[in-house]
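User: Hey, my collaborator sent me this sequence without any context and asked if I could get a structure. I don't really work with proteins. Can you help?
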Amino acid sequence: MDTKFSSAIHTLILISEAAQPLTSDEIAASVGTNASYIRKIISLLKKKDIIESRRGVSGFTLKPEAAELTLLQIYQAVNETETPRIFDLHQNPSDECVVGRYIRPVLTDMFTEIEDTFSHSLAEKTLADCISLMRKRL
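Assistant: No problem. I've predicted the 3D structure and written it out in structure-token form, which is a compact way to encode the shape of the chain:
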């Protein structure tokens, strides 16, 4: 399973809540991964104008307010897709089988509906919601 999305949220919370800008090494230590993986995530977030860095200054800052940044925007940034894809279909069902003949359109319709619901849910949640829930656990 791909962990870019959860790692990106973790990274953005750190950046948002840090008293001073953090480096990719510091972020990686918190996320529990290596700095090159974090730099890849940071690159994707920078490309979508979610974070910024300044030449000659170490660390990163969040561009939008946490309350304005939806989880859908974060998902789209790190997955480089407009519509979240949760499911993949197997490629070669047999047309000679009644199930094989109809499984792809049936599952495509169902999966599209589920993925639309997932997108809508992500659009309703923000980075600030994550931060708020985290603070409640402190």
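In plain terms: DSSP finds six helices and two strands in the chain. You can pass these tokens on to your collaborator as they are.
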